[in-house]
């Protein structure tokens, strides 16, 4: 028992000597486990820079079609439908880029644009006519935009009155085959684009990882665009031939320019 007390007193005396020998001005270093690691802001700042870069890119890419919309409206007094679709898509992408913080939700951004375009296809299938505007199918609006430089259709009725009408509008009103083509193809485009949006939602809600969602989403979108564009071009070729024949027949029945007495 005496030996144990001696060992304890020796240990305490050695600690006191060590404490007294330490200079009061010497800094006390905390243990390494207690040191605070400096805040690493590089990850947050790089993420912020990436979001700002995406937003700036979307804004810059939307400026040319927006300027074209203004130019066409000022020069020709009608709305550039294709330009409006592109501008709206860029604006929607920019908004979704800002508000979406979830990675899987961000994957839905591009498909949301296709869903909105699909909705526009369906809305324009409604045969609505008011004193302010007349709703025409999106396919017709695209065709009208591409054929805007074509000369108008002119004819003389049986009373000798001269008429002139924009070519695509004349086709839509007088050639039923072209009118059905616009409605049917618009419905197909709307359904396919909406299907792409639904497929993306199913993949996001499934157990697929982000890389596979991106891969399968790109494959689906590219397949849709290639197949639908090819099908549209093929259908347009046959519709053009049919419209030419129907237009010729219509002029034979309704154009009296060469049959009225001078």
From TrEMBL:
This is Uncharacterized protein. It comes from the Eukaryota. Residues 15-37 are annotated as: Disordered. The chain crosses the membrane at residues 54-74, 81-99, 111-128, 181-203, 215-239. Keywords: Membrane, Transmembrane, Transmembrane helix.
